[in-house]
What we know:
The protein has helices spanning 3-14, 18-27, 31-47, 51-59, 68-80, 86-97, 102-119, 122-129, 143-163, 168-186, 189-207, 211-228, 233-247, 250-264, 269-286, 291-307, 309-325, 329-338, 347-364, 369-382, 386-402, 407-420, 429-434, 477-489, 495-502, 508-526, 552-560, 564-573, 587-609, 615-619, 629-641, 645-652, and strands spanning 455-458, 465-468, 471-474, 533-537, 540-544, 549-551. By secondary structure, the protein is mostly helical. The chain is elongated and about 100 Å long.
Amino acid sequence: MDRDAEDRAGEQERRGDVGGAVGTLVAAEALSSAVELLERHAVRMLADGDVVGLRLAIARIPSRSRTLTLDVADADAAVRCQVGDLGTLEQLAERARTPDDPVLRAWVAAAMAEHFFWQGDLVGLSIAARALEDLPGGDLGSTTFLSVRGRLRRMVAIGRLFGFQADSYEQARTALAPALADFGRAGWEAERVVTAAMFAVTWASVSWDRVHEARLIAAESADQLRALESPYLPLVLTGLAVVCFIEGDLAACHVAADEADEWAGGSLATVTTATTWLRNLATLIGGVPGSESLAAVGAAIDGLRAHLPQGSGTAMVSAASVLADLGRVEEAEEWFGRADLSRDMTPYAFVDREAVAARLGILRGEAEAVDRLEGVVSSMRHLGLGRLAGVNLLRAARDAERGGWDPSTVEHLRREGVASVPEVGRRTLWEALWAQPLAADPAETRDSAGSGPVNAIRVLVPDPIVVRDGKAVTLPDGTARLLAVLIVAHRPLTVDQLAEALWPDAAPEAARVRLNSAIYRMRRLLGLGQDELVRRRPDGIELDAAGAWRVDAWDFWDLSEGSVRDRVAAFESYAGDLCARQLAYDEAVLEARTRLRARFTDLAIELMRGGHVEPRRVAAKMGLLEEDPLLAGELAAALEQAGFKAEASAVRGLYE
């Protein structure tokens, strides 16, 4: 072999450029040396997350010169890139039996177990994990063996969580300890850290339990992986985003998802797909589910179907559940009907789907829906998912109240739900919100007498929307401006006053003609009766929301001056500045938008100081802070005092 090539390859290896070293040796026709070098580094590259680099390095070696070890390494790297092939893995498993090499047997089994995990095949995962029973208990003097056996043990522990076996969490945690020990003895610190985070996030995701603990573990793991500059950091940050979402901390969810994308750099489809899904679902919750936001969620689910097929069905069920929370029954039913759980391996996914089906039945007023829900709740408790059962009961209570069920049924569901979640102070933000009676919600869909549906106008959102007989109607600009001006006035306006506000540059007669046409179009668009909502009076034209109409801006003002419970409801109802996107620069509403923002700012600080709203909940509305440094400063100080340093830093970053 060329001595210069050998020296260059040695220098490249010392610098960590394994692929470059392999290329140098292959070019010098020193294939055996290239194979030997790559075999030394393959497991380390996998453990460090450099799977793409490993596959590229292996591809430089002609197939006829590759060893069984390199074939296994390449197949394993493909699994980690989520392009693994089961047929190839089965062939390698058969080849590994011939030399009776426990290291290779363990390696192939670990790769197969992870392949089945990503494919959502719980049975296949269990079968692959049985190889653990035939492996030696010592370390065989091989860090490779310790690493791959640790991975196989990790999959056994994760499989226990997904399988919901008896006492699954405690059993799984016991099974996880040997995996962590293997990684520690092998010196694979990144694998050990990722394993601890993966385990905690998995349990929180499928059970909604130990969420705060999972968040702490994931955050600590992310810090450790940053220090190690590990390629696994985006995966752990994605897990952190998941648990923040489950806690209801949407601001922290966005921060973690953004950092995951930044570190992934677009190279990890799994990460970018999951973070896109989380962001869009969080946006759907925080705003109004119009066609744009629903389309974004749909696009994210298409990505899940391509890169995380076992999660796409669950994602659709989650979207349906969120739409049900928002009272959007038709959209919820559409998404629910599209959910395909055939590739989802968790019993949780199926009981969760049944819970959403029961909730939709409650919203439709089906007599047997409550009994159906209680059967699902019983199944959840049998699986050890008592907290998740409580969450579904609380959400169903709100559904029943929206759907006009008798108060005793509503109270029964809420009481059972409250009893199944932690006490006040230990609940997630979602649990705290859902435990509140719906009557405190200014966007409720029943009138105060409970006699029928309420129509609603929402302008404290980016794009105004009208809910008419339970169906959402998006508004063209002209109708949106007309309604916004009438809402802002909150009193009769003469024809000339209204025309001047809407068309200040038009001639008076032309403006009056436009006004009559605008009112006619709005009545037709919303299906309004002659004297419904917009009324002509001797002293002018006004918006009359008496009876079966609600206006969120008016409710916000009223509630913001009421009891603590009312003020919290007002705070929660503020989903955006007045028509902030559709009428962003419209002078007719600028002054009112400023007044509403100022009241929201004062309210947020007041409730935060009084301990009535957690700083994290205010942080979830960070999108509203861009023009409010006072609120940002108060929020950052409160977050830091409460121990949420990352969130405090993120808020301060808006003004640096």
